[in-house]
Structure formats: C-alpha cells, structure tokens
C-alpha cells in the first residue's frame, strides 16, 4: 500500500496531477450543477409570480389567438 | 438539424441522454482510474511518472476535440444562425479551457522529473498555451457585450480564426524540433504504444468525452432556462 502511494519516488508529481484533474473536473461539474439549479429555481419563482392567464383557452370561443403568440 | 433548434425538444432529448452519459462517465472513469493507477505497468525508463500520461494525453485530446466542436458550431451559428449552435459554443468553452489547463499543468508535472524542466517554449507547449488563451479569450469576448447575440457572433468569429491553431498543435512535433515527444498514438503506421498502456489511455479518453457530453448538456439546459428567465423579465417589465 505504501508502495502504491510512493509511486516509485514520484509521488510528488503523480498525485498532484491526478488531484488537480479531479479538482478541476469535479469543480466544473459542481459549478454547472449549482448554476442549473439556481436558474431553475429563479424560473419557477418567476413563473409562479406571473398573473394567471385566462382559462380555459380551447373552450373559450372569445379567446383571441393573438394573445398566445408572445409565449414561449 | 433545425429540428433540434426547438428548445423544448432539446430539453426532452437532453433529459433522455443525461442519465446515460452521466452513468457512462462514472463507469469509464472508475475503470480508467483503476487501469491507470493499478492495472498497467510502470515504464522501463519513466517509472511511475508514466501514469501522469493517463490524465495528460486524454486531457490534451479533449482540449482539441472541444475546440473543433466549438468551431464547427461557430460555423453553423454564423451560416445558419442555428440558436443551439451559438449556445453550444458558450456552454463548451469552460470545459475546453478546463481540459487545456489540466493538460498544461499535468504536462509540467510530468516534464519536471522527466525532462528536468517545468516549461519550455517549444512549438507544442507554446501552441497549446495559445489554445488556452483562445478559450479564455472566447469566454471573455462573449461576455463583454451587452447584447448577447453580438457577443456570441464575435465569439464565433474568434473560434473560426483560431482554428488554424489546431493543426499547428497536432503537427508541431513533426514540423519543428520540439522537446515534446512525437506522436505515439494518432500517427501514420498506427500506434507505437504498448496495448497495456493504450487501453487505459482510451478508457480515460472515453470517460473524459462522456464527462464533456454530460457537462455541456447541463450547461445548455441552463442557458435555455436563463433565456426563458430573460424573456419573462422582459415581458413583465413591458406588461
């Protein structure tokens, strides 16, 4: 086991190499994940605070189709 | 291809792909790390420093692969104005920059004990450093504009101008006298590296690739959500 960690005397080079790669890749994934969840939470909050649309659209003969153009 | 320009369709597609790419990443990296650290021999000259290769080379391959993908997307964005192509370049840039950084630093950590130097301004190292600056420059440029579309377009032009660096990197070890060794894998006449080392190398490369797919899909999903947020805020302020 000690032999494995010693890496034939090159431990000071091999382990920082693997460590840095892990740090960068995991860090990037974590930042990505955090940004995605933050954005989704903001979107949910924004959609929740919007005024309710006229319902129902399909059965309401008086509903104008033009009102839906700007959505999505 | 324009079928996938529809954000809702992309969201469904990425939701279907993500569990598989994430799972593949985990499996491939675990197997790759085992092979790299335990299941492969030390080098007869380099000893265990050769294990750095299993991080350094796949990272280098990824830095070029990501850039080429971004440049193709940039061309699609400029020519066809495909919206997801533009967003892809923005999503992929930090991943490419990360791999290039890993390549440069692990290269130094390998070069210090083996070459006796942390750095040398030879053609390979210098051109990869330039690639790193191109990634950083792209990220800075895209974010420098108030209008996101103009920023993306400027970034696309930068990507296409910088594509000449990719063949320079690849052939630098042939065209110039470099301290960096010549190609051992992707070369005329096939790989000269032993199978016991080639297999961990390829597994790690596949693991890095599925990592790239996973992270870029996540970042693209974030971009789409942020676009929706912008639209909502715009209509709210106008309504």
Summarize the structure.
Chain A has two helices and no strands. Chain A has 72 residues and is mainly alpha-helical.
Describe the protein's architecture and organization:
The complex is a heterodimer of chains A (72) and B (239). Chain A has a domain at 1-36. In chain A, 60% of the residues lie in helices and 0% in strands. Chain A has two helices and no strands. Chain B has 239 residues and is mainly alpha-helical. Chain B contains seven helices and no strands. The longest helix of chain B is centred in the last third of the chain and has 44 residues, at 195-238. The model of chain B has no long low-confidence stretch (mean pLDDT 95). Classes of the chains: A mainly alpha (72), B mainly alpha (239). The A-B interface holds A 4, 7-10, 13-14, 16-18, 20-21, 24-25, 28-29, 32-33, 35-36, 39-40, 42-43, 46-47, 50, 70, 72 and B 8, 33, 37-38, 42, 47-49, 51-52, 55-56, 59, 94-95, 98, 101-102, 105-106, 109-110, 112-113, 211, 214-215, 218-219, 221-222, 225-226, 228-229, 232-233, 235-236.
């Amino acid at each position: 086991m000690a032999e494995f960690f010693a890496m034939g005397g090159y431990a000071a080079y091999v382990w920082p190499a693997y460590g840095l790669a892990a740090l960068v890749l995991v860090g990037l994934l974590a930042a990505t994940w955090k940004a995605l969840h933050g954005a989704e939470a903001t979107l949910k909050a924004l959609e929740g605070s919007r005024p309710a649309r006229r319902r129902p659209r399909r059965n309401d003969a008086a509903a104008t189709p033009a009102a839906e153009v700007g959505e999505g | 291809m324009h079928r996938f320009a529809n954000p809702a369709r992309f969201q469904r597609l990425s939701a279907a792909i993500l569990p598989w790419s994430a799972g593949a990443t985990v499996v491939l990296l675990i197997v790759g790390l085992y092979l790299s650290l335990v299941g492969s021999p030390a080098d007869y000259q380099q000893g265990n420093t050769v294990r750095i290769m299993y991080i350094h080379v796949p990272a280098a391959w990824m830095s070029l692969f990501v850039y080429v993908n971004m440049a193709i997307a940039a061309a699609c964005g400029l020519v066809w104005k495909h919206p997801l192509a533009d967003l892809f370049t923005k999503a992929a840039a930090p991943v490419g920059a990360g791999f290039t950084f890993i390549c440069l630093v692990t290269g130094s950590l390998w070069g210090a004990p083996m070459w006796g130097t942390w750095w040398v301004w030879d053609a390979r190292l210098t051109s990869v450093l330039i690639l790193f600056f191109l990634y950083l420059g792209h990220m800075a440029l895209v974010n420098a504009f108030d209008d996101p579309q103009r920023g993306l377009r400027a970034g696309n032009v930068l990507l296409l101008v910088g594509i000449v660096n990719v063949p320079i990197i690849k052939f630098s070890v042939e065209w110039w006298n470099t301290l960096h060794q010549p190609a051992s894998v992707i070369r005329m006449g096939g790989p000269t590296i032993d199978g016991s080392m080639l297999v961990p190398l390829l597994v790690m490369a596949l693991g890095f690739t599925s990592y790239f797919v996973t992270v870029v899909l996540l970042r693209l999903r974030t971009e789409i959500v942020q676009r929706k947020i912008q639209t909502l805020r715009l209509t709210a302020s106008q309504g």
